[in-house]
Amino acid sequence: MTQDTSSPNTVAAALERLHKAVLEVEGGWIPTVWTCSDGTAESSLQMSIGEAAFQQVGMFDEFELAAHGALTLRARLDLPETIHGVPISGEALQLTINSLRPVDIFHDGRRVFGDHLPVVASGPALIDVLPAIAPGENGELRIDVLATATPLDGQWATSGLTIHLTTPSVRERFRLLDLAHARLMLASSFAETEQQKASVLAAASLVPGTFTAMTTAALATALGDNNDMRGMSSHLRWLDEVLNSYRIHCVGHSHIDLAWLWTYDDTREVILRDMRSVLGLFDDYPEFRFTHSQARGYAEVEASEPQLFARIRDRIREGRLEPATMQWVEADANQPGGPAQARQLAEGRLVLTGQPRHTTTSVPCTRHLRTCRQPATTGQSGRSNGVLPPSREPRLSERRSLLAGLLVGR
What is the CATH number of the domain that holds 153? Predict the structure, then answer.
C-alpha cells in the first residue's frame, strides 16, 4: 500500500504501527489455559496478554495466593507453526518469567529453573525450556510457586507472576522492530533542518502498512538497522552523526529495597548475592563500572562477610566501584520531612567516611560525597531544596548537596 507522504500524520502513523508491532512480537506466545492446584483441589485459570513493567507479558485473569500458600500451575505446550509470522519449528523454546514469589519450573518433569537461595522474587530470567520445538504438542510446562510470607493479592494478583514464551528468531524480529521504532522516534525528535525533516518523512513513508505477512528477512530489507542502512534506515544516516555528539554513561547499579515483600534475612542474601556477582564481573570485564547507592548495604556486607567487604574496598580505591551516594538507605524524598532527610545524610556520611558510629564501616569515598543519588524516590517534597539545594547542572535522579560540602569541610 502506498503511503500518503504529504500527510502531516505520516510520521506519527508510522511510529504507531511500529509501536503496535513491537508490543505484539514482544509478547511472544502464551498458553491461555492452565490448571491450578493447591494440593487439595484443582481449578482452571485463563491467561491473556497484558502490560506489566512496560512489557507485554502473559498474566492470569484471576489469580490470588495467600501468605504461606503454594500453588502448582500446569499448561500444555500446543504451539503454533508460527509466532507473529516467524516459523518456529526446530527453534529453542525460551521462557521469560517475573515473579514476586520464588518458583521452580519444569518441562515434562525435568527441572529447567529453580531459585531457592535467596528465597525471594524470581526474574526477569530467560530460560531455555526445550532445545527444539516440534509442530503441535510439545509436552507440559509446570510452574511451582513456592510458599513464602508474601501474598499475591490486590495489585499483585495479576502482575505478581507473569510469563511469556519466545524463540531466538522471534526475539530477532522484535529487535528489528524495536530498533526501527527507536530510530524513527529519535530522528523525529532531533530533526532540525528542512533536509533532516524531509528525510524523516521519507523514512516514515517506507514503514510497511502491515508486518504479519512479512518474513524477518523482508522486514530487515524494509527497515534496515544500525549496521545495515537499507530501506527506512537509509534516510536516517545523519542521525548517527548527531547521536555521536552525545556521551552516554552506562553504569551498573543495584537497586535493593531493604524492606519490601520479603524478610530482612532475604534482604541480606540479596545484598551479598549482588556484591558477589558484581565482583565477578569486575574480574571478567576490566572496563566494567558499578555503583551501589546506600550506605546500609556496605555496612551489611562488612558485618556479614568482612572478606567480601575488603574486595569491595579494593574496587572503590581503583575507581571502578563508585558509591555515589550520601544516604543511609535509598530513601524516599517525597514524604519524609526535612529532619528525616538530614538524618539520612548524616548517617550515610558517617559510614562512608569511617566516622565513629554503631558500626565501624569505612568506605574510602570522601571524594564522592558531593553527590546525592536518589534512584528510588517517588518525587521531591517542598522541603528537599532546604536540605539538598538543586544543582546548577541538574541530572536525572541526582541532586548536588551543599550540605554534603559542609559536612566534609569543603
Answer: 2.60.120.380
Query: pTM of the predicted model, to two decimals?
Result: 0.73
b/e burial code for range 323-338 (CB count within 10 A of at least 16 → b): bbbbbbbbbbbeebee
pLDDT of residue 343: 78
Domain containing residue 114 = 25-171
The Cα 36–Cα 44 span in angstroms is 6
Q: Considering 118, 151, 171, which residue would you say is the last residue of a domain?
A: 171
In whole angstroms, give the CA distance from residue 203 to residue 182.
13
CA 271 to chain centre: 18
Examine the fold and report which residue of 171, 198, 229 is the final residue of a domain before the chain moves on.
171
Report if residue 246 sits inside a domain. Answer: no
In 3D, which of 227, 226, 130, 131 has the Cα closest to residue 187?
Answer: 226
pLDDT in tens, 63-104: 888 888 899 999 999 999 999 989 999 999 999 888 888 889
Residues 6+ apart with CB under 8 A from 245: none
Q: Please give the Cα distance from 77 to 25 (Å, whole number).
A: 18
Nearest residue to 204 via CA among 226, 186, 228, 227: 186
Report how far residue 202's alpha carbon sits from residue 196's, in angstroms, rounded to the nearest whole number: 10
Question: Distance (Å, rounded) from C-alpha 212 to C-alpha 229?
Answer: 22
